[in-house]
């Protein structure tokens, strides 16, 4: 019986360690409209498959976009790195030179990535001279 309990505990520990930390992104969503060059907070759930993301798992946030008919995510911009994934939120600053598109995505990566729905980023407002 003791060996059965030990085996069961080992299996549970292995299953927890085998979880891929790719949390569901809640902000931005399909209704989000952001502006290039501005700061925004990316938010995500801190549980995956009912398990809390543990301390020590760091994340990366990338910005990309999708083109119709392509699976390429064009993840050209790193917006944040090495933050605790169990924080559930991270403030990022968008690059100022983005063009207007309604097909941008945010990817939050732990040991795998999860993409937001497509959302809109508008180009930065031109500077006006006085």
TrEMBL record:
Pfam family, one: Kre9_KNH
Domain Yeast cell wall synthesis Kre9/Knh1-like N-terminal as annotated: residue spans: 28-121
Signal sequence extent: 1-18
Entry keyword set: Signal
Protein name: Yeast cell wall synthesis Kre9/Knh1-like N-terminal domain-containing protein
Organism encoding this protein: Phascolomyces articulosus
Source taxonomy: Eukaryota, Fungi, Fungi incertae sedis, Mucoromycota, Mucoromycotina
């Amino acid at each position: 019986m003791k060996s059965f309990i030990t085996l069961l505990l080992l299996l549970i520990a292995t299953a927890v360690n085998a979880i891929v930390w790719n949390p569901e992104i809640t902000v931005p969503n399909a209704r989000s409209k952001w502006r290039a060059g501005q700061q925004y907070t990316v938010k995500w759930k801190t549980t995956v498959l009912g398990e809390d993301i543990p301390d020590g798992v760091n994340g990366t946030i990338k910005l990309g976009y999708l083109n119709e008919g392509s699976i390429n995510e064009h993840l050209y911009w790193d917006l944040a790195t090495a933050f605790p994934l169990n924080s559930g939120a991270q403030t990022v600053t968008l690059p100022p030179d983005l063009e207007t598109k309604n097909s941008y995505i945010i990817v939050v990566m732990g040991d795998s990535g999860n993409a937001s729905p497509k959302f809109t980023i508008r180009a930065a407002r031109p500077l006006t001279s006085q």
